[in-house]
Amino acid sequence: MSASCVAEQLATLRRQGYVVVRQFAPAAVVTALRDEAERQLASQAGPIEYEADLQYPGAPPSRQAPGGATARRLLGAFGRGPQFKAWATSPAVAAWLRAYFGETPVLSTVHHNCVMTKHPAYGSLTGWHQDIRYWSFSQPELVSVWLALGPETAENGGLYFIPGSHTASYSAEQFDEKKFFRDELPENRRWIQQAVCPELAPGDVVFFHCRTLHAARQNGTDRVKFSLVHTYHPQSCLPLPGSRSASAPGVPLGDE
């Protein structure tokens, strides 16, 4: 990837709060990650967060209800096998983030660090939110790296983003008690009307800022959607002592 191409991508992320980089991950890497994710989902290899645990719209009411064993995400992706570790710390990811941050990027093992699995029927809707809402760092300067392990569209629950939302100031009243952006408010609707759902092919990556408002619908197809997401911060941006963000050490990404 040329320096001018990367510079344009970085500028897009800074301007609109997200950028799609096509075919960022090699096909062989995507296949290996997807195969392993499918194997671990089939065997219910923990730790797993279930749809019933979060109770988002469309989720089963309990673990005992029909669909109660539907996984929302396979947690702890970095420790789920060498292929996951290799992707999260890959030279391509490290170089791109180093160019963005201007310093060493650090992988958070606390936030995201998971395989997202959106199932038909029992996969829930995710409301508008900023990822920074539950994170505690010295600066709100984190970037998530979302890798599509299969096709992603609005129909199967692909991510929607609101361009420019990462630089806006919002009042506390614009969010509900769970810190979701309230879609019934006229001032919020004006933002939501600008939302974009980029279609992704396997191997495409979305880099998005921790303050960018995003959401996802339910999966209206008959196939599970798999995505792999990790979050990174610059080395100078520290998790606050005593917070959940500081509950496990990060992984600095070296030059190699």
From TrEMBL:
Top-level lineage group: Bacteria
Keyword Oxidoreductase: yes
SUPFAM superfamilies (alphabetical): Clavaminate synthase-like
Keywords recorded for this protein, A-Z: Dioxygenase, Oxidoreductase
Cofactor: Fe(2+)
Pfam families: PhyH
Signal peptide location: none
MF GO annotations: 2-oxoglutarate-dependent dioxygenase activity; iron ion binding
Keyword Oxidoreductase: yes
InterPro entries: Phytyl_CoA_dOase-like (IPR008775)
The protein, known as: Phytanoyl-CoA dioxygenase
Organism: Bordetella genomosp. 7
Record lineage: Bacteria, Pseudomonadati, Pseudomonadota, Betaproteobacteria, Burkholderiales
